[in-house]
Design goal:
Number of strands of chain B: 18
Radius of gyration of chain A: 23 Å
Shape of chain B: globular
Number of helices of chain A: 13
Number of strands of chain A: 0
Distance between the termini of chain B: 39 Å
Largest interface: A-B, 18 and 23 residues
Strand order of the largest sheet of chain B: 6-7-8-3-9-10
Number of domains of chain B: 2
Largest sheet of chain B: 6 strands, mixed
Structural class of chain B: alpha+beta
Largest sheet of chain A: none
Oligomer: heterodimer
Helix content of chain B: 25-40%
Strand content of chain A: under 5%
CATH superfamily of one domain in chain A: MetI-like
Structural class of chain A: mainly alpha
CATH class of one domain in chain A: Mainly Alpha
Number of helices of chain B: 9
CATH architecture of one domain in chain A: Orthogonal Bundle
């Protein structure tokens, strides 16, 4: 029997949900609004919410002053590239851990997760030096490698949990049918895990897109993604809130749109296996 | 030819020994059933033959050739899994043809073989459906179709019917037996259901804790069990096992008598018993009785037996049907 919920209670819960949603969304909304103000209005006190002179001039200036498309292209390359290589490594790794576990598999998984507990700044100097000596600074290849390694533990963990849900007998059946290991992964495991792989892929693209610490530290121009594009408006001439907001809006717009369309897939992926 | 031989086949995970060492010869075209309680190692043994589990030591010969370290698909065996293990993202056609595709057969040949298998199994109209759109029985058929299409030397069945409901199970049992007759291929069938074992097998292999207790035809096992374990496992309802002074009279630690080998009388007999419960099946009546020094016993009465609770009856065992066992549970034979 379904629990009966009174109309009043329903209204209250709905209002609360909207309030929390708005609270979380507010900074993004404010950034977007600010991007349409003049610099003067952007810092006006008390702040103006909707009633100001809407203007597109910030976007014009930002586009004129820096090459948005080049930064965006780098962001796309870094996000897609790091995700692709991470999946290529993570799918076989997660397969091994889920279907051919050894005595140390659980420890290995914990250890991988523990690398995420170290503050990235702790690894900055060694990685910077390695990049400098190997000429990887400000190269797409170098950043893709770092971003891939950065998110690999999370990707392997996510895939591992999805793969655990797949009955091992199906893979064994494919082995009886004569599928080699590669074909087993390609024709049987991967298609069955598509929902899980898709949400892992989406999440990783978002993480890689928004990653700022390493991209800001290791790129300057050639491989600089949109995080650099935003950062370039916070210095050195002082803060220009409206232009910074315009740049931020342009930087997050693509990923926001992607997230919007993929939210069903994301939610399904993150709760996969929780309810049968 | 599809002979299968196990030579001291052993399986252990670290210190945990699953199969201490099994020796078995299976003849070409034979229908062999591995039976035993859950956890007895019967599925492990089957998976070792299939190549899905490595042997710790020992060897497996198929068709006279040493296949101990050969890949599963190279052994010429097909397997039907308990969960069917169909590829959920492929159509029925895709499922049945997957093995042939992996073998690299030309498309026309694959199509012909799939069509033939589908028509044998009444699956032709379902070829383009996905497994989730099929009933349990149809899924089972697809799993069998996937196995027969490769035309293997032998079939391995791992409790294939345990997910089906009772009525369907009897039908599929007959179909598998018919298939064995038609194809003449060697079949190894794992089950925990001794009725399936009795009805289907040419030979039954009874396993207990990884050890082969006895190998024999269904009636050999029924009539001449080698051990207490086999005596208790084969036959339904179970054999009555009696210990103590009553067994001593027969020079044994334990004696066994099947419910159907006890004569019932209301006047006189070897043992006196009180009826506690009666199960009426129509054709038979099973009486659960308290036979004093012999303990609780089950007795089969033919037809409808008018049993009143606590009524006193007399039981007489058929002398030739009494099984005697020593203190180690081994049969005593004269």
């Amino acid at each position: 029997m379904a629990r009966t919920v009174s109309t009043r209670r329903k209204l209250l819960v709905t209002a609360l949900a909207w309030a929390i949603g708005l609270l979380i969304f507010f900074p993004i909304l404010w950034t977007i609004l600010t991007s349409f103000k003049t610099e003067g209005e952007a810092i006006a006190l008390p702040p103006k919410f909707l009633f100001f002179d809407w203007t597109l001039e910030n976007y014009g200036i930002v586009q004129e002053r820096s090459d948005y498309l080049r930064f965006a292209m780098n962001s796309i390359m870094l996000a897609l590239g790091s995700t692709f290589f991470a999946l290529v490594i993570a799918i076989p790794s997660a397969w091994a851990m889920a279907f051919a576990p050894g005595r140390r598999t659980k420890d290995l998984l914990m250890w991988m997760l523990s690398t995420k507990m170290m503050p990235p700044v702790g690894a900055l100097v060694p990685i910077y030096l390695i990049f400098r000596d190997f000429g990887l600074l400000d190269t797409r290849g170098g950043i893709i490698t770092v971003l891939m390694l950065l998110n690999l533990p999370i990707i392997i963990w996510m895939l591992y949990t999805y793969f655990k849900e797949i009955p091992g007998e199906i893979l064994e059946a494919s082995r009886m049918d004569g599928a080699s290991l590669g074909k087993e992964l390609l024709y049987v495991l991967t298609p069955m895990a598509i929902p899980g792989i898709a949400s892992t892929l989406l999440l990783n693209i978002i993480l890689a897109w928004n990653e700022a610490f390493w991209t800001l530290s290791l790129t300057t121009k050639d491989a600089a993604p949109l995080t650099q594009f935003i950062a370039s408006y916070s210095s050195p001439e002082g803060l220009f809130w409206a232009k910074l907001s315009a740049a931020s809006t342009m930087a997050i717009a693509p990923i926001l749109v992607l997230g919007w369309f993929a939210q069903k897939q994301l939610v399904r992926g993150l709760t996969f296996g929780a309810v049968k | 030819m599809g002979t299968i031989s196990l030579i001291k086949a052993r399986k252990a995970f670290g210190d945990a020994v699953i199969i201490p060492g099994a020796d078995l010869d299976i003849k070409d075209g034979e229908f062999v059933v591995f039976v035993g309680p859950s956890g007895c190692g019967k599925s492990t043994l089957l998976r070792m033959i299939a190549g899905l589990e490595d042997l710790t030591s020992g060897a497996i010969h198929i068709d006279g050739k040493d296949m101990t370290n050969e890949a599963p698909s190279k052994r010429g065996l097909s397997m039907v899994f308990q969960s069917y293990a169909l590829y959920p993202h492929m159509s029925v056609r895709g499922n049945i043809s997957f093995g042939l595709k992996m073998a690299g057969l030309p498309k026309a040949e694959i199509d012909a073989k799939v069509a033939k298998a589908a028509s044998t199994l009444n699956l032709t109209e379902y070829l383009d459906r996905k497994p989730r759109q099929l009933s349990g029985g149809q899924r089972q058929r697809v799993a069998i179709g996937r196995a027969i299409v490769r035309n293997p030397e032998g079939f391995l069945f791992d409790e294939p019917l345990s997910n089906l409901d009772a009525a369907l199970r009897v039908n599929m049992r007959l179909e598998i037996m018919q298939m064995h007759k038609d194809l003449g291929a060697t079949m190894i069938y794992v089950t925990h259901d001794q009725v399936e074992a009795m009805t289907m097998a040419d030979r039954i292999v009874v396993l207990n804790r990884g050890v082969i207790e006895q190998v024999g035809s269904p009636l050999e096992l029924y009539n001449r069990p080698d051990s207490l374990f086999v005596a208790g496992f084969i036959g339904s309802p179970k054999m009555n096992l009696i210990q103590g002074s009553e067994a001593k009279k027969f020079d044994a630690t334990t004696i066994g008598i099947r419910p159907e080998h006890l004569a019932i009388s209301e006047k006189a007999g070897t043992w006196t018993a009180k009826i506690r419960l009666a199960e009426h099946l129509g054709a038979d009546t099973f009486l659960h009785v308290d036979a004093g020094p012999c303990g609780m016993m089950t007795v089969r009465a033919e037809g409808e037996y008018d049993a009143t609770a606590d009524a006193k009856i007399f039981l007489t065992p058929e002398p030739s049907r009494i099984h005697r066992f020593d203190k180690d549970g081994k049969a005593i034979r004269k």
